[in-house]
Design brief:
ten-stranded mixed β-sheet; alpha/beta; about 250 residues; 7 helices; 2 domains; about 35% helix; Ubiquitin-like (UB roll)
Length: about 250
């Protein structure tokens, strides 16, 4: 009795496996067929991104351009995603098929807050790290304030991370409004953890503002609003002074 019952169960499983095999063969045949139909060739790529500009880096464009005309079933989504992740500044990427001939791509870039020039080297900085980028990527960040660093200090920051002075400078530089017509921001702290020397140039007024110690953005904005004539100014937490001839300072 047990033997017959066992045979009956075995025959059921054989039938199930046979059906599964037939389904796999049919599915494979269909896939092989549609993967050779031009009807499913990629003709449209819908790209969404969270970049700080409307422009898209050329290396991202190059990766996606290779998919045009390729059958959508032949594309490996994981491989395509990995290629996008290797592009400069890309934090995350998501790729999906949208039948019959479209790719849906979402790319997430670093949220940079300033861009940094150090000699012939170009960097972009977010709230946690500064990374070297190509000149093309650097020039795309048209809405970021530009800060000039000495090459040695830039190398120190990229290798060891932000020091306290750099963080304080970053907070100020990232908030400076275009309305103040700042034409240049320079910073150097000689690899010290204290706040270094931050210089703001206002070429239209023939003015240089030296930020001598950490200040709030509100304090910096107030000082910029007080500058009314050409010359050099020093900003401290509790004072704004103008240098006169002979190095004598007059309080403002």
């Amino acid at each position: 009795m047990h033997f017959r019952s066992g045979m009956r169960v075995m025959r059921i499983w054989i039938k199930i496996l046979f059906v599964i095999l037939i389904v796999l063969v049919v599915a494979g045949t269909l896939l092989a067929g549609v993967s050779n139909l031009s009807y499913f060739d990629v003709r449209e790529i819908k790209l969404e991104h969270n970049g700080v500009t409307d422009a898209v880096p050329q290396d991202v464009i190059n990766v996606l351009a290779k998919t045009r005309g390729v059958n959508i079933f032949r594309l490996n989504m994981n491989t395509l995603r990995q290629e996008l992740l290797e592009c400069e500044g890309v934090l995350e990427a998501k790729v999906s098929r949208y039948f019959p001939d479209c790719l849906m791509v979402r790319v997430y870039f670093n949220r940079f807050v300033i861009k940094v020039r150090a000699g012939d080297y170009f960097y972009c900085a977010d709230s946690e790290r500064m990374i070297q980028v190509s000149e093309e990527r650097y020039n795309m960040q048209t809405d970021l304030n530009e800060v000039f660093l000495p090459e040695g200090y830039a190398g120190f920051i990229t290798k060891w991370g932000y020091d306290e002075g750099f963080v304080q400078m970053l907070e100020l530089a990232s908030q400076i409004s275009p309305k103040f017509l700042i034409t240049g921001i320079k910073y150097d702290n000689n690899n010290s953890n204290r706040f270094g020397r931050m210089i703001l140039e206002l070429s239209s007024l023939n003015v240089e503002l030296y930020v001598r110690e950490p200040v709030t953005w509100q304090r910096l904005e107030e000082a910029l609003g007080c500058i009314g004539e050409e010359g050099r100014y020093d900003l401290y937490a509790n004072a704004l002074v103008k240098r006169t001839q002979g190095g004598v300072k007059s309080g403002i």
